[in-house]
Amino acid sequence: MTNPVYCVIAEDEKIFRDALIKLLASQWPGLEILVACEDGAEALEAIAEHKPAVAFLDIRMPGLSGIDVAAATAAISPATQIVFVTAYNQYAIDAFEKGAVDYLLKPIEPRRLAGTIERLKTRMSKGGSDPVVLAALVEQLSKALSQGTRDRPLVWLTASTGRDSRLILIEDVLYFQSDSKYTTVVTVDGEALLRTPLRDLIGKLDSSQFRQIHRSTIVNMKAIASIVRDEAGRGVIKLKGRQETLAVSLTYMPLFKCM
User: What is the pTM of this model?
Assistant: First the structure.
């Protein structure tokens, strides 16, 4: 009996997530889906924990995109084979054909998936993808994504302070931090509460300015004074003009490797 091949799926649209799961079950019986995620943050944490052989990543997701997750995966689980899933065929660029990763267009065609599965098996038997080619592809895709059309980021929000409501400009937010019920908005002037979950909020923020650093924390990059790594590789963010520090989960540290 052969060992199962472990897999993580990240797709924010349930109809496409369920369709991919069903197709994989019929076409790759030896594949075991460990986690089927709704967003990039959950996917990155699952990949860091399980080190799967394969990850199917939707390119456009709330918060961390599939490209962000792929870039971090190269550091935290380099043996994981990446397959991008997208409804946007402008991402089907020449670099895909160089063999570093594969891609699937929505709606996924069974014949295309069958070819992808065969290429994945071949790459795994040869020891995986070329990390140099993969890095170049991720950079190319990142540029394509940033040039694509997207909704205007959130400019302001209304939050509660006691019984009062407060209008807050997004550029004044230092960081967002959530618990099970509320999201706390922290500015220089104090704190306020939102009922919007963090995973819904991050998709509305400018991704070039706000980055998720922990399952429960999003930080304004302009508010960061420095990032210090401890001996275990975890990060601690020091904020400009603030006493408190913010923990960066080990899973998210690869996203800050240039800092």
Answer: 0.68
